[in-house]
Amino acid sequence: MKLIKELIHRRIPHIIGSYLIAGTSLILFVDWLVNRYTLPEYYTTLCLFGVIAIMPSVVILAYFHGAPGKDEWTKIERIGVPVNIIFIFLVLLIGHRSNWWFEKNTDDVVRNYVVHISSSDYFIKKYKNDYGYGSVVFSPDKYILTPINNSLLDEIRVSVQQNIISDYVNKNLNIEVNFNTIISEVLDTLTFPKEGGLQKTDFPVFKNVLIENSSLYQYISDINNFPKSGLFRIFIYNVNSIYNNSNFLIIDPTVQIPGANRWGSADRYEYTEIDKIKDNIYNYIDENIKHLTYSGTRLGEVIDTLNGGLVKIKQYKTGVLVKKIRLISSRDYHWAKGGAEMKIEDLINLKNYYQNNGSLDNIHTIDTKIDDIKNKLKTDYYREDTWSTHGGEISYKMEVVDVIDSIVIAKIISENKQKYIVRIGDIVNLLVE
Question: Are residues 332 and 197 in the same domain?
């Protein structure tokens, strides 16, 4: 009781309360300035740190000088206040050198690739069920699917490898075409791409087989590097049509990034010329490597929408973007966290655009996609860690008009504004035209 009376006599609760109110007001004011004038966000963090860190000095001064009347400076004050200030200075200095206050740079560039070209019996049954060639399901009474022979498979792999060496020998990339049968057997047991792609249970399997059997282990032996590794899984099969006794090859290519599954559409074509299938496989690989490593590099994300068709973007790495650079959006759909519903909303918005423009074919395609998503929502297709990235027609183009540290202001320059919805969290990529 005596202590409480003494604290009140020295007006410590009054002083600390007033200080907290003033400090909170200062933090809110700085936060408003940051948002209003697109200042670096770490200004708010520094302000919060300063308000909290100086508190010991406030308490000391309040205790010894809060009571009415003149007070002499004590030894505690002469030591405590300077020590507190020195501590704050050292933390700020160390924090600046260690980038504590700044946004961590996010490098989503994929530089390590495994190219797995397969014709495994393991997945043939998938093509007899829900994953037919275009609109055609490879039912056993109409088509017979068989693996291609190993010599032809190796011939295709060698051709792809030669092209990769020719085009990427001087690039800062590690690309390995898989010839190892042990790796092949393991990769052909991972989750089928059209069933959600790589899952959490697949990551350690993928990692371990590469560590033990691939030269890429030195680049991706750390599990934290896995999001920077791409896996091409390209399936090739012989198809015999019972109806007209025709024979052809199909390829079903996919590229996946652990933690951010990406797979292409079912670009399956009938091939009768082996050279053509080699060219198309390599072109698919080449196009996706360029997209993921260069134009697909994630430069930042939309954090706010502004008047006049402007968006505010947070750069992942300060200094990358400058005025006049053109960008394009993409969007992540975390399927088990509302991504399916968001995708349906985007498709409905696109459908409304086509309805207003009388494009019936596109409307039918969109309806099919919406029905497919709704049907999958009724099953366990959308696993917790399954997500995909999409751009295409729902993406929008931007041009940088101003840059202030890590904050970028860009103007949307896309036409047909009814096609897309601008969302907070949209990914920003470099536009390659």
Answer: no
Residue 296 neighbours by CB distance under 10 Å: 22
How far apart CA 120 and CA 134 sit, in angstroms, is 20
Judgement on whether residues 264 and 168 belong to the same structural domain of the protein: yes
What DSSP string describes 30-94?
HHHHHHHTT--THHHHHHHHHHHHTHHHHHHHHHHH-SSS--PPPHHHHHHHHHHHHHHHHHHHH
Residue 150 lies in a domain: yes
Do residues 261 and 386 lie in contact, with contact meaning Cβ atoms separated by under 8 Å?
A: yes
- Residues of the domain holding 351: 298-430
Q: What is the DSSP string of 281-316?
A: HHHHHHHHHHIIIIIT-EEEEEEEEETTTEEEEEES
Question: Can you spell out the DSSP letters for 22-36?
Answer: HHHHHHHHHHHHHHH
Share in percent of the chain as helix, strand, coil (round to 5) = 45, 20, 35
CA 343 to CA 348: how far, in whole Å? 9
Among 262, 295, 328, the domain-final residue is: 295
* Residue 358 counted as domain residue: yes
Q: What is the pLDDT of residue 105?
A: 45
Q: Are residues 407 and 330 in the same domain?
A: yes
Residues paired with residue 117 on neighbouring β-strands, in sequence order: 234
Q: Are residues 136 and 251 in the same domain?
A: yes
Question: Chain centroid to CA 281: how far?
Answer: 25
Parallel, antiparallel, or unpaired: how do β-strands 112-118 and 229-241 relate?
A: parallel
The proportion of the chain whose per-residue pLDDT surpasses 70, expressed as a percent, equals 82
φ/ψ region of 425 (left if φ > 0, alpha if ψ in -120 to 50, else beta) reads left
Q: Mean pLDDT in the chain? A: 81
What total of structural domains would you count in the chain? 3
In terms of domains, do 47 and 11 share one?
A: yes
Answer with the one of 295, 322, 341 that is the final residue of a domain: 295
Confidence at residue 267, expressed as pLDDT on a 0 to 100 scale: 47
| Residue written as token pair 């829900």 | 130
Q: Are residues 277 and 310 in the same domain?
A: no
